[in-house]
Amino acid sequence: MEEQFILRVPPSVAERIDRLLDENASDDKSLDLSFSDDGRNGTFVIGDDHFPASLLDLPGIVESYKTYDDSVLIKTADVGQIIMVRDEGDPAPDVVEYRHGLTPPMRDARRRRFRREPDLNPELVRRVEKDLLNIMNGGTAEVVDILSCLVICLLFHTDMIK
Fold first, then answer.
1. How many angstroms separate the Cα of 72 from the Cα of each of 4, 31, 102, 121?
2. Which of 45, 78, 116, 159 could be joined to 32 by an S-S link, Cβ 3.0–4.6 Å?
3. Single pTM value for the model
4. Where are the beta strands (DSSP E) in 47-132?
5. What would be one Gene Ontology cellular-component term for the protein (predicted)?
């Protein structure tokens, strides 16, 4: 397995990296990325310029593939984090999860595409669970609230299916 990461940089930095990789330019010979002790914030260095960087979690896993013959794809890694390089004046993100994916359809993906946690009263869930265990063991329920039991049973059943 290879070690891979996604590096998102401002356009001006991207041009300098392209020039460094394509032309072996002599003015920008050094590239460096270092993180502080917290592992989330760091510094990206290209030439003599320093840019702040942050390590953020993506809302989903991105698979990376490689090909040697332009017909067969071989999976090389699962990427779940992105290194975001910012210009000097840009504010640091205050969260550890990047809200958007890598492509426009994944914009605000966590809110739009993933299932939300149900709003359930924990005491009600404990009571219904206790009643269900009593019924499965041949006993009876203490207080029967059919509607609550049905809602929790349906939620439990759909979670078991998925």
1. 20, 33, 24, 51
2. 45
3. 0.63
4. 49-67, 73-85
5. transcription factor TFIID complex
Instruction: Look at residues 77, 78, 80, 117 and name the one whose alpha carbon lies nearest to residue 98.
Output: 80
6-112 in CATH: which number? 2.60.40
- pLDDT tens digits, 31-51: 889 998 888 899 999 888 899
Tens of pLDDT, residue by residue over 100-147, are: 888 888 888 877 777 777 777 888 888 888 888 888 888 776 765 666
Domain limits, CATH 2.60.40, in the chain = 6-112
Query: How much is the pLDDT for 160?
Result: 47
- 153: part of which helix (H) or strand (E)? helix 146-161
